[in-house]
Write a structure and sequence with these properties.
31% helix, alpha+beta, 127 residues, single chain, 6-stranded antiparallel β-sheet, Aspartate Aminotransferase, domain 1, globular
Length: 127
C-alpha cells in the first residue's frame, strides 16, 4: 500500500525548496514515503518531516545533512529539530515560515548536497 501524499505541489515554500535543490547539478526529485526528496545519487534533502512517534509533524520544513562543525549551534536554535528516522544519521530539519531566510536554506541544502553528491557533480557546481 503506497504512502499518502503529504504535500501540496502549490505550496510556495515547497516551490522555493524545489528551485534551490533542483538548481544543483544532476539533482532529481523523487516522491518517497509521501514526501518530495531531492537526490544526487543519494538523498540530500526532503520536504517535510516530523518528530519520532508521528504526533508532531512539520509539513513545511526541509530536512538536510548539516556540516558537523555547524550542528551544535543549529540544534540550539528553536527553528531546527531532529527528525524521526533521519536524526540518528545526523540529519536535521528546519521549520519554514514567513520569516525564513532563503539564503540560509540554500546554504544548508548546498552543504547537504556536498555530503552525498559524487565528485563529478560537485565539480560542476564549483566549476
Amino acid at each position: 500500500m503506497p504512502h499518502p501524499i503529504m504535500f501540496d505541489d502549490a505550496d510556495p515554500k515547497l516551490v522555493r525548496v524545489r528551485e534551490i535543490a533542483l538548481a544543483l547539478p544532476d539533482t532529481t526529485e523523487v516522491v518517497a514515503h509521501g514526501r518530495p526528496t531531492f537526490r544526487c545519487g543519494k538523498m540530500f534533502a526532503e520536504y517535510g518531516g516530523g518528530l519520532k512517534g508521528g504526533k508532531v509533524r512539520y509539513d513545511q520544513s526541509v530536512l538536510f545533512i548539516p556540516d558537523e562543525s555547524e550542528r551544535p549551534a543549529l540544534v540550539q536554535d528553536p527553528r531546527f529539530y531532529v527528525p524521526a528516522y533521519y536524526g540518528p544519521y545526523g540529519w536535521l530539519g528546519l521549520i519554514l515560515d514567513d520569516d525564513t531566510d532563503w539564503g540560509e536554506v540554500a546554504e544548508l541544502i548546498d552543504a547537504s548536497y556536498r555530503h552525498v553528491a559524487p565528485k563529478r557533480s560537485v565539480a560542476k557546481l564549483d566549476g
